[in-house]
TrEMBL record:
The lineage of its organism: Eukaryota, Metazoa, Chordata, Craniata, Vertebrata. Belongs to the BZW family. Gene3D superfamilies: 1.25.40.180. GO terms for cellular component: cytoplasm; membrane. GO terms for biological process: regulation of translational initiation. Keywords: Activator, Coiled coil, Transcription, Transcription regulation, Translation regulation. The gene is BZW1. Pfam families: HEAT_5MP1_2 (PF25504), W2 (PF02020). PANTHER family: BASIC LEUCINE ZIPPER AND W2 DOMAIN-CONTAINING PROTEIN, EIF5-MIMIC PROTEIN 2. This is Basic leucine zipper and W2 domains 1. Residues 245-272 form a coiled coil. Residues 245-417 form the W2 domain. SUPFAM superfamilies: ARM repeat. It comes from the Eukaryota. CDD domains: W2_eIF5C_like.
Length: 422
């Protein structure tokens, strides 16, 4: 029984372990055969796929995988940097010389898909080739980059390659010169055209790259605002929204962690920490309303869940007032807009209803936060008249009745004084 031959590779040569015979790594003949076949099949991609399928039985695809893919993409072997090697045979029938349209790129994607399905061992080599090609982007023309981007997006959409290949786009030089971002536009357009934004999101999450999209831009442009404008202007609002949402999720986690650490250290909240201040400045004012609701919820829940509350109703109010007085600067930092004050009031209403021993504490908590400038009289009056929710409505409105009357009277007196002054 004849055993299988085992080969190991050393620079520029292969050694057959069964015979110790050295086989020089020489892709010239392999390249000539592939180029000749492609020249004969021409632009008929069905014929190209059949030629590649048949040739795999006679040629050493395993050893010369990189050469094979170089030829199919660029027409010849690529030198470092992405230029074609001058001294070797080339073909004009390749991806880079094809028409620059999505339909043609879809047809080329089918050629690669059929080849790799037939010769499974080429999968890893193909991914390595794509990674290399992305690093060589500066060496290609704009048209060549566009075709490669469309092809890559189609291959990603169909699961032919892993999204981990996108790591190559974070190369410092490619990012700095704007090549990565421009390439990403074409890539994600073809990806979403093939599938949808959910396909993009799922693939990026799978390889831990869902929070790295901003890195397509240099540090001085690495913001949600710049990313959103760039890709929205390019017709990729779905991607902009996804990136903004991912950034918000990451920021919420950072906020929760910072709040927890500050509380565990027992830090006083007379001044909001620099980290939280930075968070507010960077993210809070640009968030969507739904995300602001989430933020208010995180802060309120973090503050209220840190304490083991007394089960006696007559004692819990005093405990809550003392606790919230300490954290009022934090709450104030997150209620700089009228809408956020209403959201906090609603969150408080829901909390006091869901935690039965707080039912009689609501009015006293509102008064405390009013005195601490966390809640304005406008916000309280709006909550009372129209913005409250159903939970415990009758109980809490009754609690607030006298205080609301006092606010209205104070407001009327203030207006009268202003009129007299005029």
């Amino acid at each position: 029984m004849t055993g299988k031959k085992r080969m190991i590779c050393v620079p520029n040569e292969y050694i057959d372990l069964s015979t110790d015979e050295k086989k020089v790594f020489d892709p010239t003949q392999f390249q000539e055969t592939i180029v000749q076949g492609l020249n004969q099949t021409g632009s008929d991609l069905d014929a190209v796929a059949k030629f590649l399928d048949a040739s795999g039985a006679k040629l050493d695809y395993r050893r010369y995988a990189e050469t094979l893919f170089d030829i199919l993409v660029a027409g010849g072997m690529l030198a470092p940097g992405g230029t074609l090697s001058d001294d070797l045979t080339r073909t004009e029938f390749c991806l880079f010389t094809a028409q620059e349209d999505l339909e043609t790129m879809q047809a080329y994607a089918q050629v690669f898909n059929k080849l790799i399905r037939r010769y499974k061992y080429l999968e890893k080599g193909f991914e390595e080739e794509i990674k290399k090609l992305l690093l060589f982007l500066k060496g290609f023309t704009e048209s060549e980059r566009n075709k490669l981007a469309m092809l890559t997006g189609i291959l990603l959409a169909n699961g032919n390659i892993s999204a981990s290949i996108l790591n190559s786009l974070y190369n410092e030089n490619l990012v700095k010169e704007g090549v990565s971002a421009a390439f990403a536009v074409k890539l994600f357009k073809s990806w979403i055209h093939e599938k949808d934004i959910n396909s993009v999101a799922g693939s990026l999450r799978k390889v831990g790259m869902d929070n790295r999209l901003l890195e397509l831009f240099p540090a001085n442009k690495r913001s949600c605002e710049h990313f959103s404008k760039y890709f929205t202007d390019a017709g990729l609002k779905e991607l902009s929204d996804f990136a903004r949402n991912q950034q918000a999720i990451g920021s919420r986690k950072e906020l929760q962690k910072e709040l927890q650490e500050q509380m565990e250290r027992g830090d006083a909240f007379k001044d909001v920490s620099p980290k939280i201040t930075s968070y507010l400045r960077t993210y809070f004012h640009s968030l969507l309303s739904l995300q602001i609701i989430t933020m208010i919820g995180i802060v309120w829940t973090s503050v209220m869940s840190y304490v083991e509350w007394n089960k006696k109703e007559e004692l819990v109010t005093e405990q809550a007032i003392k606790h919230l007085k300490q954290y009022s600067p934090l709450l104030k930092a997150f209620t700089s807009q009228g809408a956020s004050e209403i959201l906090l009031l609603v969150k408080m209403q829901e909390y006091c209803y869901d935690n039965i021993h707080f039912m009689n504490s609501f009015q006293k908590i509102v008064v405390l936060l009013y005195k601490a400038d966390v809640l304005s009289e406008e916000a309280i009056l709006k909550w009372y008249t129209e913005a409250h929710v159903a939970k415990g409505r009758s109980v809490f409105l009754e609690q607030m009745k006298k205080f609301v009357e006092w606010l209205k009277n104070a407001e009327e007196e203030s207006e009268s004084e202003e009129e007299e002054a005029d």
